[in-house]
Design goal:
The chain is an alpha+beta fold and 286 residues long. The protein has 2 domains: 173 residues, Double Stranded RNA Binding Domain (2-Layer Sandwich), CATH 3.30.160.150; 81 residues, FlgT, C-terminal domain (Thrombin, subunit H), CATH 2.40.10. Strands 1, 2, 3, 6, 7 and 8 form a 6-stranded mixed β-sheet that branches. The chain has a 6-stranded antiparallel β-sheet with strand order 9-10-13-12-11-14, with no helix packed on it. A hairpin with a 2-residue loop joins strand 4 and strand 5.
């Protein structure tokens, strides 16, 4: 038995010496069921688009898990495990504590409209009809160990489709591709926001006037974008509450994205007053 354990230990050490990657420790995140507010449900029923709302909620619910997983920053807890954890959670004083999970994501649909706009062009004998979908959700990230709200953000989206000579088309008759597109945009936006709040994009390597960023495809980066680069300073603490307000950030340059790979992004340095590895990136204000 001792001999077997010795061989096993030698195998592990050999693997490490050969540079084989060791699985990193990822933060665990639980994702609650996506729900629409009662007001949104009532409005959809009145407008005759309850079916569209149901499809949106189901689509967001399933796609959100994949989008968060695809950030490669979190270990997503299975829904079945989440239900068990919630039963064992400590709910007291309006807060909660969930063991075995680092973060909890709660998403609520707080606006949904699916309607059609039509314009007649009598001189041409044609008409143009637009199906418009408006969707907004609130995403809240909680520290599961304390129940503290870390971030709350609203994600409003609008998407429309245009076709000709469909003035008589009814709501919902047009392609459901729009529903898929808008829910995809929403889930990507939410998952990227989570990753940016908990793990801001960082420079992980630099060679001459190019830097490599720890974000890849589908993480909000696109070729041509310009991002501000910040060096982090000391932690900022609220003198009244003692709560951490994050760390001081000083802008040290700007970079422009030139290419994106599945796991990383490469950018060219535009301005540099101290860009180093570990610096974080923020999108420039529009």
């Amino acid at each position: 038995m001792k001999t077997w354990c010795l061989f096993a230990l030698c195998g592990v050490l050999a693997a490490i010496s050969r540079g084989q990657p060791v699985a990193p420790h990822m933060k665990k995140i639980a994702i609650s069921d996506v729900k629409a507010t009662p007001a949104v449900v009532a409005a959809a029923a009145k407008a005759g688009c309850s079916n569209s709302l149901d499809r949106v909620v189901q689509s967001v619910d399933s796609q959100l898990i994949d989008s968060v997983h695809n950030t490669r920053k979190f270990d997503v807890i299975a829904r079945s495990d989440l239900q068990s954890l919630l039963k064992e959670a400590d709910f007291a004083g309006g807060s909660f504590k969930i063991s075995g999970v680092d973060y909890l994501l709660v998403t609520t649909i707080d606006d949904f409209q699916d309607y059609q706009e039509t314009r007649e062009f009598k001189a041409l004998g044609k008409s143009a009809s637009w199906r418009v979908i408006r969707l907004a959700a609130v995403g809240k990230i909680y520290d599961a160990s304390s129940g503290k709200l870390i971030e709350s953000a609203n994600f409003p989206l609008e998407i429309r489709d245009q076709t000709e000579n469909v003035a008589d088309a009814k709501n919902g008759d047009l392609s459901d591709a729009l529903l898929h597109d808008i829910t995809s945009q929403l889930t990507v936006a939410i998952s990227n926001r989570i990753a940016d709040v908990i793990f801001p994009a960082r420079i992980i390597a630099r060679m001459d006037q190019e830097v490599t960023i720890n974000r890849g495809e589908g993480t909000g980066f696109s070729v041509g974008q310009v991002w501000a680069v910040f060096a982090q300073g000391q932690e900022l603490v609220d003198p009244d509450t003692g709560a951490s307000l994050g760390r001081e950030e000083v802008q040290v340059g700007k970079v422009q994205v030139v290419r994106i790979t599945p796991k990383t992004t490469v950018a060219r340095v535009l301005e540099d007053t101290g860009i180093q590895n570990g610096a974080i990136l923020r999108p420039l204000s529009k």
